[in-house]
Each structure stands twice: as structure tokens, then as C-alpha cells.
Design goal:
This protein is of the alpha+beta class. 30% of the residues lie in helices and 30% in strands. It contains eleven helices and 20 strands. Helix 8 packs antiparallel against helix 9. It starts with 10 loop residues before the first strand and ends in a 10-residue tail after the last helix. The N terminus is likely disordered.
Amino acid sequence: MAVFSKSQVPRFSVEVYQNEYLPEGGREVNAIVTVTSTGGGTTGGVPLRQASPPPSGSDRGPAAGVVIMVDCSGSMDYPPKKLRNARDATAAAIDTLRDGVAFAVVAGTHKALEVYPGGGRLAVADPATRARAKDALRALTAGGGTAIGTWLRLADRLLSSTDLAIRHGILLTDGRNEHESPDELRAALDACAGRFTCDARGVGTDWEVKEVTGIASALLGTADIVADPSGLAADFTRMMENAMGKEVADVALRLWTPVGVEIKFVKQVAPTVEDLTGRRTEAGPRAGDYPTGSWGDESRDYHICVQVPEAGIGQEMLAARASLIVPAADGGAPEVLSHGLVRAVWTDDMAASTSINPQVAHYTGQAELAQVIQQGLEARKSGDFDGATAKLGRAVQLAARSGNEDTAKLLSKVVDVVDAATGTVRLKAKVADADEMTLETRSTKTVRVKK
């Protein structure tokens, strides 16, 4: 856990948006929990445990570590500029590292090789190590296959070689994971989950969207496509800047529920849709933790749905308590950063009990938007053009209704929109691979509720 100076402790707040009123016999309670972290960014992105230099003779290690995994399989040489762009992008990411951050570069093929610094360890960023790391990139050549699980396991070993508060990976691939089985990749992801976060990028159009998004989902990072390799440097720079802004690691959303209350689902719904229901770890009687990863100055929204016991008119109860927690440095009880309450009140006022909270309605639509895009694209690939038209038409309607302009633009490259309000569309006869993959990769990105 990070140790913060008192003047620079990030502040977490929890706000709950819901309609707590239920009709007689009503049992389902929905709430949007907005979590915001502010006030920790005064170090300009330097992890706060390093906000001031350690005292002379201190053996305190770096606060953060990043491992960059670069695909060097044979396909990275077709065209040759792809690997050159990957080298340039990695160099740009190295230049973005803050002094004092631990880092390493890994070349990934059907095996994983340490490019810099080597010896199973991490270097500590300063002008000299950054220069040496960039020199080492010149030795990168393309050849061999793709076994991403081995890359991730090496990154895990490197990041666990020293005590780090923030542990992060950046992974680039241009092809499918053909030299290990899906079970082997899943086993690697299961082994790495909770140990470090990872942003994943696919370059070009010969990689598998579900593999890249699955890596990011399992390791609580971001996924995206860089269709043109010339855009890698800018993308890597943004990823590293974002990683450098993380200041609190291993944050969990803890839900406590009274006897008789059942949690139906827990989903992150902004900035992306991510189902956390199956990631619960028990945390004592009637409490469970859902991982949220690392935080900087940012805000995220979570949709919580619980089922409460039946109750009569006029009764009320606490349906759930949502808390943000981080592990204690000494291994004791976790620190509670903030909390909010989800309530249930039974009423015979029909207007009150049938009103849907705007936040809940908005994010229910955003989750459906992500789902119907993926279903529509699958139907299109399988030749079910009527099904694809119906699903993607519904997606166009939801995107327009919610003001998700970015997704609407991506959809317009796959379908011709006749009437967005009614979801009337026609499938385009020809769609560029990059446009279809971009829509699929970014389908889970959401927009906040319009004020």
C-alpha cells in the first residue's frame, strides 16, 4: 500500500444515486455509486510515496513499477515499419517515465525475453537508465510466434521482484495468440489478476479483439486498437502518462448487506462497462470485495443491484453499504476511504415507486448498448444479417438517446443510419476491418449522464 504525505493524501468520495422507493412486495433495488478520487495529483503524476526523496541511507524502494511488453513475433516485420513504430512507441513511453519509477522492457514471441535491464530485475528510471533502455531497443528483431501468457508471467515476476505500491503493465500485440492454448492464456491471467494492472493494445487488424479486451478486463486495464502503426507513439505516451498518474493501488469496492439481502450484480458502468460480479472475494460476514485496481485523479460509476426481503408499506431498511477500502500497510484491518448507503423504502405512492432514477436508467441503457453492439457484430460475422440489422439498429437508437456521440460515429461506419431515433439502419455492404474492430474494441466505452 502507498504511504502518503499528509499534505498530498488523495481524497475519495462516494455518492449514491437511486430511487429508494419500492411498491408493496417490491424487492429489487438499483443504485449507481459514483466514486471520485481527487487531490492526489499535486505531484504532477509522480506516485506519492516518492513525493520527496528518501532519507540518506534509506532502503525504501520505488513506489511504482511498469513493464512494457512488445510483440516481436515474425508478423511484426510485415510491413517492416510496424516494428520500427513499436520501437519508437516504446522509446516514447520510456521518455514519459518519471524519475524513481521502476521499469523493464520485455520482447514477446513464443517466449518472453528481458530486453532491459535483464537479470530478472527492474531498473529505476533516471536520465541514464532511460538512455540505456532506448539503446537496448535497437536490438529488437521480429521472429517467432506469439504466446502472450508467457509475457504476462514474466512481467509478474519482474514486478514482484521488489516492493511496489503501483504495479502496471503495457502490452502490445499484432496477432493472435497462436502458440499457446486459450486455457494456458486464461491460467496466466488468473495467476496475474490482482497482482498488477495492464493496458493492452492491438496494432493493425490481424489480432483477435476478444483476446486483447479479455487481457485488459482480467487485469483491470484499458484495451484499444491502433489500426495505423504510426499512431503507436502517441498512444504509448498517453498510456504511460495515465500510469504515472496512478497513486493508490489495490482499491476495492466492499459491499456489506444485511441478512436476507442478495446481491444480483455489481458492474462498473463508467468510463467503461465491466462486470465485477464474479470477482467477489469474501470479506467477513455478509461482506464482499470487488476489485477496482489503481486510482489517480478520476471518477468512476458502479451499478449495484440487490434483492431485498418483502416488506410492508411504510417499512424501510438499509439495503447495502458500499465502502472504498485499501489494504493496511501492516497487514491489519483495511483502511476505509469513504462509504455510501443504499436504502429501500416501501410506499403506496405509485408516482414515487415507479419513478426510475435518471442515473440508473442511463447506465442500464449504456450496458445494453455495449451488449447489442457485440451481439450485432457476432450476427454479422455469422451471416445472420437480419439479426445484425436489428441489434445494430438498437445500438444506434441507444447511442443517440444517451448522447454517446463517439459510439454513434463508430456505428455509422458499419451501418447506414436511416433514422437514429427509431433505430432504423441498413448494413453497409463493405466494412473496413479496422472500422469493425474499432467498434468492437470500444463498444464498452460509456458516457456520463447529461446534467
